[in-house]
Write a structure and sequence with these properties.
This protein has about 450 residues and is an alpha+beta fold. The chain folds into 2 domains: about 220 residues, UDP-n-acetylglucosamine1-carboxyvinyl-transferase, Chain; about 210 residues, Alpha-beta prism (UDP-n-acetylglucosamine1-carboxyvinyl-transferase, Chain), CATH 3.65.10.10. Helix content is about 30%, strand content about 25%. The chain is built from 14 helices and 23 strands. Strand 15 and strand 16 form a beta hairpin. The longest helix has 14 residues. The radius of gyration is 22 Å and the shape is elongated. It starts with 8 loop residues before the first strand and ends with a strand. The structure holds uridine-diphosphate-N-acetylglucosamine. The site of uridine-diphosphate-N-acetylglucosamine (UD1) has 21 residues, from helix 1, helix 5 and helix 6.
Length: about 450
Amino acid sequence: MYTKDQKDQFVIQGLAGARTLKGSVTINGAKNSALKAMAAAILFDGPVTLENVPDNSDIQTLTTILKKLGASVTRESKPGQTVTIDSTSIDSTHIDDDLAKGMRASVVLTGPMLARYKKVAFPAPGGCVIGARPIDLFLSGYEMMGATVDEHDCVYDISVTSELGGTTITFKKISVGATETLMMAAVLAQGTTVLNNCAREPEIANVAEWLNASGAHISGIGTATLTIVGTGGKLLSAKKSFVTIPDRITAGSFLILGALCAEELTIENCRPDHMESITTLLTESGADIEIKKDSLVIRNSSKPVVYKPITRVQTLEYPGFPTDLQSPLVTFLTQCSGQSTVIETIFEGRFKYVQDLQKMGAQITQHNSHEVMVEGPTALHEVEGSQQLMAHDIRAGFAIVIAALLGKGTFTVNNVHLIDRGYEKLEETLGRLGARVVRVKK
Ligand code: UD1
């Protein structure tokens, strides 16, 4: 189990630019896929089995939320990383306020809950502190399917008198969460739902294919238009386990770490076909990446590589460059020779970590809340006096860990509980590669 002690710190000995880490990391299942499959378990008439479920604190939080609703959730310790969920015992339709506020992904429970129990109450969702995160697409989608939305004291009450009704919804913005949540709601609906302008992330397809194998009728999987023929209230029946796809964001994070800090790093159990945006960028910048069917090897062994800058990269919906790798990429760009520009198009406020890189000596100019310019290469150094480094969200936390490993001196990273949300025992994984990272419990 992971500690959620908010005071945990990492103390990291920097490598002072030496690329000495070596070894392999095995990539866990995608958190953003497993969380949605856990929510989808509510659509089933009995127990479901999920495999390759990572054991990070976001998964633990959703487990607790499901248990508080009355579901039975059990986890088998390794090797299968198997979670079994039986939602037939659910006896509450109020999603725990405090837990849900801390994790935005909990909003995906609302679709299956509404579809099955005809009502759900939940708080305005929280999650990573990465700018404004509205839920208008979810609410208007439910209303179009015939539900009534009532808001009081920051709690939403959503209800529908009979089954949700099929309809056509064209999302005004591409949203991963709204796509998968409305898709799940539509699975049990009366009639056909067409969702236009959908997100196409592989994690959505992962869940959709499993639902289809269990009695759902979703077509257009992997495209921007999903058509769902509802079962009219008939619950799904588990025919096979859900197998979580490898986490492409974790794999991409380690690929960047490997490019900067490793002599040779093998990234096992990943899906390079889900990672083309990052492997292409790094290769163009000069990284030596061997792409195999389900692994990647990055090498710095032959001669020291001076990476080329990336003139302009913008975060986009899949298959574009993922916003979740924006912060590790900026750390990478501090080591490229020349000027790079990064434009964040998905979220507001996702450059908070830049101040921490600046404290370490990185030459980064923030033009506005969506754009930074990075000038490299810069040798990163210890922060002065009582200044502290922070993990601002899951991925930015990883970006700061990479920067600390790169730097010269000793670095203390605070807010490690945010890193724990997405990376299992990161200090141990890095230790096995030869890094000196110690978790300090306060
Ligand atoms: C998911 C991922 C997150 C990733 C993000 C974008 C999970 C648990 N999290 O988050 O790691 O960074 O996709 O790839 O899977 N929006 C609205 N109204 C809504 C919903 C969203 O305007 O009702 C906006 C958001 O503010 C944001 C954009 O849509 O600007 C995309 O957000 P979305 O794709 O929904 O992100 P999440 O599903 O929360």
